[in-house]
């Protein structure tokens, strides 16, 4: 619904989003998000993106 994609959009990605929660394990490649369920790539993006 928020058009999540697993690649950045216009230079923006989850790693710079205020809703992103980084991976907890050192070897994990995905984190989580406050507004979307499921594993979230730091390099992803969705319509709810908001800069930190
Ligand atoms: S709101 Fe969207 S852009 Fe921000 S962390 Fe979640 S999935 Fe990524």
Automatic annotation (TrEMBL):
Matching Pfam families: HIPIP (PF01355)
Keyword Acyltransferase in annotation: no
Membrane spanning stretches: none
Keywords tagged on the record: 4Fe-4S, Electron transport, Iron, Iron-sulfur, Metal-binding, Transport
InterPro entries: High_potential_FeS_prot, HIPIP_sf
Residue span, High potential iron-sulfur proteins family profile domain: 1-52
Record bears the keyword Signal: no
Job description of the protein: Specific class of high-redox-potential 4Fe-4S ferredoxins. Functions in anaerobic electron transport in most purple and in some other photosynthetic bacteria and in at least one genus (Paracoccus) of halophilic, denitrifying bacteria.
Family that this chain belongs to: Belongs to the high-potential iron-sulfur protein (HiPIP) family.
Assembly mode: Homodimer.
Name recorded for this polypeptide: High-potential iron-sulfur protein
The species this protein was found in: Cupriavidus basilensis
């Amino acid at each position: 619904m928020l058009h999540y994609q697993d690649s950045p959009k216009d230079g923006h990605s989850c790693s710079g989003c205020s809703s992103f929660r980084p991976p907890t394990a050192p070897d994990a490649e995905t984190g989580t998000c406050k507004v979307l369920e499921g594993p979230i790539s730091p390099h992803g993006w969705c319509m709810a993106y908001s800069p930190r």
